[in-house]
Amino acid sequence: MVNACNSRYFALTLDGHPFGADRIDQDVPAGTIEDWTIRNDSAMAH
Question: Of the chain's two ends, which shows fewer C-beta atoms within 10 Å, N or C?
Fold first, then answer.
């Protein structure tokens, strides 16, 4: 079985920075309501 994450290139960014599971970019207080915009700028269908 081929892992799609290892066989294709994609760039996941958050707030313009490459995704990194080993760091925290924002400190959001508990109970805060967040409004996220998710956008696919590539030609790849999702």
Answer: N
